[in-house]
Write a structure and sequence with these properties.
Elements: E1 6-10, E2 14-21, E3 27-32, H1 43-50, E4 54-59, E5 68-69, H2 80-94, E6 100-104, H3 106-117, E7 124-128, H4 136-139, H5 145-150, H6 152-156, H7 160-181, H8 189-196, H9 204-215, H10 226-232, E8 242-247, E9 268-273, H11 279-282, H12 284-298
Parallel strand pairs: 3-4, 3-6, 6-7, 7-8, 8-9
Antiparallel strand pairs: 1-2, 2-4, 2-5
Helix pairs in contact: 1-12, 2-3
Amino acid sequence: MEEPSVKIIETDILLISYLEHGAADGWPVLLSHGFPYDAHAFNTVSSILIQAGARVIAPFTRGFGKTRFISADTMRTGQQAARATDVIQLSQVLGLKRPIVGGFDWGGNSSCTVAALWPEQIGGLVSYAGYDIVDVSGQRHAATPSLERVCWYQHLFQSERGRECLTENRYELSRILWKEWSPDWQFDEETFARTSKAFENPDFVDVVIHTYRWMHGLNAGDPSLQPLENFLAQKPKITVPAVTIDGRADPLKPGGTSDYASLFIGQHEHIVTNAGHNVPQESPQVFADAVLKVHNWLK
């Protein structure tokens, strides 16, 4: 599939850059990446979906690629309500009608958050992994030692030493995370180099650092988004049709996320695949099939 050119649209506070695959009149899909990835993570997924008539929008999240804040005064927050607001506003500006939203890592979080906050504007959901809405109060408590060890990067980012490390070593650090989180994925240098260009964004470090400090309850979020975060703290159930995915080899999700099933009260299916954290690139057919399943439910 030919590499699409980067497009840019304006929302309330951002110039959002995105890749668009498929015909403009296709059924809409909006796929969001996480850290440390970019919109190209969905290229193969998109090539599968457009054969089934989809129009796929893959944005570069705030702090990545050519996505830019309009004002220097805007808080560089990476909290879930901010990234979800970006997704819903992108959908609105593009005129997408009840798109299927999906993603992994931060993108799974923002997609679940959009589905919980604005279900009337969403057709369905594909989430890696499970019910991926951040429980800030829960994050203040310890996980198992084995998982705390895997989350070393989150602990590093709580300090100014971590900010310096990310600023000076963003590519090396990201490569390490790719290898640790997807132990069986043999990605090539071209794939990593294409994605790592997105880390040159001037807001990359600020957004990443704030995301993890906010998640751990150590940094405040944007006060204007607090009502949304208060609602999310109640663990609202997801009502839209949803497929959730686990990767057996993902060290960030030991044991999987099937126990979240009760938080999905619409049509729901949970699947497990032989992949690590980056399912869209490791198992693109599985991810695309999940989107197609939701699409068929909506017919």
